Amino acid sequence: MSHRILKIKRRYIAVKCRPEYALDMDKVYESIEEMFRRLFGEVFLVDSRLRRIRVKRLDESIIIVSCSHIYLGKVLAAITLVNSVDGEAAALDVITVSGTLRALKRKIRLRVS
């Protein structure tokens, strides 16, 4: 008997933070994570495999997060609903979504420049 193991597909999301100044990206990620937890609970947060991806040579106001492709809609909803970071008013805009980091970086360069 053969057991098939399915690979979990990941999606990478580029998020632009506004205002660009004085926002700590670790606090931005914590705000996204906390909003997801408030909306969908701790179990979905663990299942979503939400992670921050650190990329060198990227605009300082852009944060990249990754998640399981199954939870992409829920993660996008959580990102959209964040309205403050560390007590300060902020807005998070999704720039693009991709299945690989290479394609995500290419899309960011095309949209930002």
TrEMBL record:
Its GO biological process annotations read: tRNA 5'-leader removal
Q: Which UniProt keywords apply?
A: tRNA processing
InterPro entries, alphabetically?
Pop5/Rpp14/Rnp2-like (IPR002759), Rnp2-like_sf (IPR038085)
- UniProt keyword Acetylation, yes or no: no
Keyword tRNA processing assigned: yes
What Gene Ontology cellular component terms go with this record? ribonuclease P complex
Q: Check the record and name the SUPFAM superfamilies matching this protein.
A: Rnp2-like
| Protein name, as recorded | RNase P component 2
